[in-house]
UniProtKB/TrEMBL annotation:
<keyword id="KW-0934">Plastid</keyword>
<dbReference type="InterPro" id="IPR027303">
    <property type="entry name" value="Gln_synth_gly_rich_site"/>
</dbReference>
<dbReference type="InterPro" id="IPR027302">
    <property type="entry name" value="Gln_synth_N_conserv_site"/>
</dbReference>
<keyword id="KW-0067">ATP-binding</keyword>
<dbReference type="Pfam" id="PF03951">
    <property type="entry name" value="Gln-synt_N"/>
</dbReference>
<dbReference type="GO" id="GO:0006542">
    <property type="term" value="P:glutamine biosynthetic process"/>
</dbReference>
<feature type="domain" description="GS catalytic">
    <location>
        <begin position="163"/>
        <end position="432"/>
    </location>
</feature>
<dbReference type="GO" id="GO:0004356">
    <property type="term" value="F:glutamine synthetase activity"/>
</dbReference>
<dbReference type="InterPro" id="IPR036651">
    <property type="entry name" value="Gln_synt_N_sf"/>
</dbReference>
<dbReference type="InterPro" id="IPR008146">
    <property type="entry name" value="Gln_synth_cat_dom"/>
</dbReference>
<protein>
    <recommendedName>
        <fullName>Glutamine synthetase</fullName>
        <ecNumber>6.3.1.2</ecNumber>
    </recommendedName>
</protein>
<comment type="similarity">
    <text>Belongs to the glutamine synthetase family.</text>
</comment>
<dbReference type="InterPro" id="IPR050292">
    <property type="entry name" value="Glutamine_Synthetase"/>
</dbReference>
<dbReference type="InterPro" id="IPR014746">
    <property type="entry name" value="Gln_synth/guanido_kin_cat_dom"/>
</dbReference>
<dbReference type="GO" id="GO:0005524">
    <property type="term" value="F:ATP binding"/>
</dbReference>
<keyword id="KW-0436">Ligase</keyword>
<keyword id="KW-0150">Chloroplast</keyword>
């Protein structure tokens, strides 16, 4: 990820007000995975989609398109809120829609809701009700207008967070005064792989076969090197429309694999923005007829895996003398390596092999400008004596609430014994 800059004002959990001329990203036809520009003169925006229609009748497609593109704002004050939550696997996203009487600007204006937890693996059938608490809102790029996406966390009817609610614990850590005083910034690099629908094989790869070796694909252009750019670009624009603090995107080392970056975000917002960006990506790939995979090693062999590198800094790290604070943080991270690895995503052992720009899962390491280490420090940080660190261990399917909160807890709140600290410093050659 590029150098961490000052966070955008979008990090506050409010809807970013867009110009009245902004158009919703509605559903239009994807053909052969190429986004076709709308040729109708009456349309004001080219950034719209069509859905696949069962019938080949163009008039039926157009009627469906017109209904999906309806702007209800002139006719009613009511809006549609899409309540989104993390499902029972800890990585799947679920959602359902609700009509709200009028536009809102803050999640506190929204009612709590509930769902059948027995159908998501989060509650038994005899006591299946799970309560949704609205926590963050974003503009809805699919419905447009005043409609919103609502990131929720999940509780029992008695108000206790259910086991898959990782946001609750993260919010506790980020509300700790020591943590808030340090204003933790996060820049998260979300990698993902696009798969062909029926064969679950990377997009652009010959079915049952392999493309040429890695090398020409990273940040490349061309029909033989870049597969899925329209999906990446559509997602980029949709995130900006929604108010997600997305900071860039690029093609990755393995063909059919992409990355986007979210941040800098402050505290709990990092998790909210990543989860909402994942939801939008799921919806776009759904419309494109492509499968989204967050598997950390979707293809075995001499191919890069998919990570979620997390760039992190505190106020003390960003100020003069911050490099010493960074080295102290690295020392703490080395002493809790096992705790972090166990929380950094399922299947990560298939990715963290010491090859393909990764460190071994069993050994903690750090280095300047070294992408084969657990923790990388940039050259500019070393030269300026302040900046940020990059934790390269998290897998693409990690829970951002867990990872961001754990980084803050380990580097700000947790204190090792002096003996352990001294031994770790000697082992890592850290003079702190």
């Amino acid at each position: 990820m590029a150098q961490i800059l000052a966070p955008s004002t979008q990090w506050q959990m409010r809807i970013t007000k867009n110009p009245a001329s902004a158009s919703p990203m509605t559903a239009k036809m994807w053909s052969s995975l190429l986004l076709k520009q709308n040729k109708k003169g009456s349309r004001k925006s080219s950034a719209k989609f069509r859905v696949f229609a069962v019938k080949s009748d163009n008039s039926a497609v157009n009627r469906l398109e017109d209904l999906l593109s309806l702007d209800i704002t002139p006719y009613t004050d009511k809006i549609i809120a899409e309540y989104i939550w993390v499902g029972g696997s800890g990585i799947d996203l679920r959602s359902k829609s609700r009509t709200i009487a009028k536009p809102v600007e803050h999640p506190s204006e929204l009612p709590k809701w509930n769902y059948d937890g027995s159908s998501t693996g989060q509650a038994p059938g005899e006591d299946s009700e799970v309560i949704l608490y609205p926590q963050a809102i974003f503009k809805d790029p699919f419905r447009g207008g005043n409609n919103i996406l609502v990131i929720c966390d999940t509780y029992t009817p008695a108000g206790e967070p259910i086991p898959t609610n990782k946001r609750h614990r993260a919010a506790e850590i980020f509300s700790n005064k020591k943590v808030t005083d340090e204003v933790p910034w996060y820049g998260i690099e979300q990698e993902y792989t696009l798969l062909q629908t029926n064969v679950k094989w990377p997009l652009g790869w010959p079915v049952g076969g392999y493309p040429g070796p890695q090398g020409p694909y990273y940040c490349a252009a061309g029909a033989d090197k870049s597969f899925g750019r329209d999906i990446s670009d559509a997602h980029y624009k949709a995130c900006l429309y929604a108010g997600i603090n997305v900071s860039g995107t690029n093609g990755e080392v393995m063909p059919g694999q992409w990355e986007y970056q979210v941040g800098p975000s402050v505290g709990i917002d990092a998790g909210d923005h990543i989860w909402c960006s994942r939801y939008i990506l799921e919806r776009i790939t759904e419309q494109a007829g492509v499968v989204l995979s967050l598997d950390p090693k979707p293809i075995e062999g001499d191919w890069n895996g998919a990570g979620c590198h997390t760039n992190y800094s505190t106020k003390s790290m960003r100020e003069d003398g911050g490099f010493e604070v960074i080295k102290k943080a690295i020392l703490n991270l080395s002493l809790r390596h096992k705790e972090h690895i166990s929380a950094y995503g399922e299947g990560n052992e298939r990715r963290l092999t010491g090859k393909h720009e990764t460190a071994s899962i069993n050994t903690f390491s750090w280095g300047v400008a070294n992408r084969g280490c657990s923790i990388r420090v940039g050259r500019e940080t070393e030269q300026k004596g302040k900046g940020y660190l990059e934790d390269r261990r998290p897998a693409s399917n990690m829970d951002p609430y867990i990872v961001t909160a754990l980084l803050a807890e380990t580097t700000i709140l947790w204190e090792p014994t002096l003996e352990a600290e001294a031994l770790a410093a000697q082992k890592l050659a850290l003079n702190v």
